[in-house]
Amino acid sequence: MSTQTSLQNSHLTALRQISVCLLFCILFSGIQCLHAQVDYSVDSLRVTDAEWSIDTLEGFYLKRYQFGEGALFCSAQHLCVIEIPARSHRKLALVCDSTLTELSTLARRSGAYAAVNGSFFDMDMGHPVCYLRINGETVGENTPAKDDSVRRKYYQYATLLLRNGRPTLALPDSSRVWEESLQDSNIMTAGPMLLRDGKAVPQRDDRTFVTRRHNRTALGIRPDGTTLLVVADGRFKHQAEGLTLPELQRIMRWLGCSEAINLDGGGSTTMYVHDQPADGVVNYPSDNHRHDHEGQRPVSNAILVM
Does 144 sit behind a cis peptide bond, omega within 30 degrees of 0 on the bond before it? Predict the structure, then answer.
């Protein structure tokens, strides 16, 4: 056997050994990840013990945290939270425009101090596809499914009521017109409900809307009356991968909420805070496919902090 052949065989043997080692590492990491998905106590502590960036603003707090790759649910996540104490003079309001408009524009036009995107809407027609009543005027209805004109859709199974600017959550029945009987002046239906009476509301496991990771927006209420507006960025693999609905449920519970509703998400997910850099956009909207603050998707409606 020649010296050259011996060297080639040695190199092949070394490459095989390296490949086996790499495969073992990958499999071991995967097993660790699967275990972490089962033992959520690790993720819970990472959320509750995180050293959040906190801006103390007039009547509310803005909290942000970047979880690195693999740090939360074996993924990278970026969360933004507006926390409004129960004693705050700040109140919530709803807004809807006749044309799709960026959240930052809706908020500034309304004189809001902060805002998040609201409920679901038709991206082609521009109107809400969930029930929406603002200051006593109905501006959106629960659109029917193609094969069922009576019962509501999955994302219409939770309702936000604003009473004197304070949020209350309600579970509608299956009828599409349930909200019409309510006396409240400000009503926004979205969904599904995430938390009810401190417990996770069971979610369907046969819909990618539930099981796949997306940008998410949610509203939660703590037992003491504190209101949380939460956004989780998504569609950025190494910075913010988004959440499934069960993951969002856990986040809301770990943040102390006993009640929580899922709002419109995906490219609509946006949080605005007055006088912040980047035109007030504090998260990373994904509609421009770049990890920056420029990717706002024009939306139909929003929840405002006044």
Answer: no
CA distance 240 to 231: 11
The total of other beta-carbon atoms located within 10 Å of residue 55's CB is 13
pLDDT band at 38 (very low <50, low <70, confident <90, very high): low
CA angle in degrees (0–180, nearest 5) for 73-75-76: 125
- Beta-carbon count within 10 A of 291 CB: 16
- Report the C-alpha gap between 272 and 111 in whole angstroms: 12
Give pLDDT tens digits for 161-204.
999 999 999 999 999 999 999 999 999 999 999 999 999 999 99
Crossing angle of helices 41-48 and 245-254, rounded to 10°: 50
The span from the CA of 17 to the CA of 151, in Å, is 60
Q: Let me know: does 73 contact 243? Beta carbons within 8 Å.
A: yes
Q: Indicate yes or no: pTM above 0.85.
A: yes
With a cut of 70, say whether residue 87 has pLDDT above it.
Answer: yes
| Predicted pLDDT at 150 | 79
Question: Apex CA 155: angle with CA 71 and CA 163, to 5°?
Answer: 95
First to last CA, the chain: 83
What length does the chain have?
A: 306
Question: What is the secondary structure of 250-270 as a DSSP string?
Answer: HHHHHTT-SEEEE---GGG--
> What is the number of H-type helices and E-type strands within the chain?
5, 17
Query: What's the rounded Cα separation, in Å, for the pair 144 and 121?
Result: 13
